[in-house]
Amino acid sequence: MIAPARRAATEVLAAVDAGRWDLATALAQAHPSLADARDRALLTELATGVQRWKLALDFAIHALTKRQPADLDADVRATLRLGLYQLQHATRIPASAVVNDAVEIVKRGPTRSAAGMVNAVLRRVVREGPPRLPEPPRVPVDDPRWRMQALAWLAIAHSHPAWLVERWLDRFGIEATEAWVRYDNTPADVTVWPLPGVGSGESGVGSGDSPIRDPRSAIRDSEFGNVEGTPTRFVPGGIVLANGRDALPHLRAGSAYAQDEASAAIAVVAGTVGRGRVLDACAAPGGKSLAMRSWLPPDARLLANDMRTRRIALLAATLGRAAGPRIPIVRSDATRLPFDRSIDTMLIDAPCSGLGTLRRDPDVRWRRTAADLAAFATTQRSMIEEGLRALAPAGRLVYATCSSEPEENESLVAALLQERPELRRLDLRQEPLPPSMTSLLTDEGALRTWPHVHGLDAFFAVALTRP
């Protein structure tokens, strides 16, 4: 009998590879078919792991079969990737079970004749180990071969798209790029933030400080029991859990919400510079709105906006679990807001390439191309222009992304300021942010988090004001 998680993982990977769904959607579609929570967890681990290491796995497939992975049938390609991943990275699973299930999966698929090849390839890896991956450059940096060797090592051995690695190599150098790709290939931790009012006796509204002074005691006093973790390093009030999987049921129970620390830093910036009537323009799933509310002044009035039905439902569910005054929800397109010079502060956490979140979402590595950056920048610029139109006189706009690339961030803002000389950049170094966030601020007064510097996903935020 084929293990249910392995069977489901093969189907998920084939669907993602065919472009029918992204990884998150494919997993959400597959989870209901697995009754056992352990199978669902294993499915997620296997499918995510294969996507994380896909380029290195394909290098091995080519070395072992002398064929390009793209030339293999989809079910064979997915099965080989899954089998190689388990033999190399999920070694607690018996090799015999990996090989036998892979062969049975192919036998029951549309290309039964490939079962013998799959069996031979995987058994060879069991006997001899996987093919050697490219190694660090062996020639001096001024040798013409150095760049090719560096790119092959960083892209193939660390499973990142070559076009993106080349950009990072040019901007940051080989040591920083190596640290970055290694960071992306480590399992993502889970950072949780107690919902306002849980365990603190306070609503967290208008506190001007983190809503929870001791996050561990707040969670312990709620529904978590004893948790193992460490306080967040830059943004006060969160806890990084040692075992996020065990914590997730409690997150769903409503005592806390999960949010990456870099994402939380964006909310702190928006809340700190915020005043008056405040709009979170792209608010779903709602974590930033909750965090913002805790850092806004007491007289601020926060609105949360999003557009799609499913995202509105997520937003309502998140906001509805929190104590304190209700945050009204607005449903509108962020490029056509129903406000005219009436918003005092706006956060635009814009849709972006997501290239700063490759550790948390490895699927993004293979779904983005360099050409996508210009398209995202066009939409982002439209959102900013609409946001500026909706701002009241002397209003403030915080623009943020989870992208690593300048086209969506520094270059976009520089072009905007050149074309709109009436705009002024607020220097976040002069704003009353927590001292622990100082190292996240740039010389231009923006917020920038880097995997190779801060050990956080790559996020960006800048605050602008208009006359």
Automatic annotation (TrEMBL):
Enzyme class: transferase
Cited Pfam families: Methyltr_RsmB-F, NusB
GO biological process: regulation of DNA-templated transcription; RNA methylation
Active site per the UniProt annotation: C402
Molecular-function GO term, any one: RNA methyltransferase activity
Catalytic activity, EC: 2.1.1.176
Alphabetized InterPro entries for the sequence: MeTrfase_RsmB-F_NOP2_cat, MeTrfase_RsmB-F_NOP2_dom, NusB-like_sf, NusB_RsmB_TIM44, RCMT, SAM-dependent_MTases_sf
Family statement: Belongs to the class I-like SAM-binding methyltransferase superfamily. RsmB/NOP family.
Name the UniProt record assigns to this protein: Ribosomal RNA small subunit methyltransferase B
Record gene name: rsmB
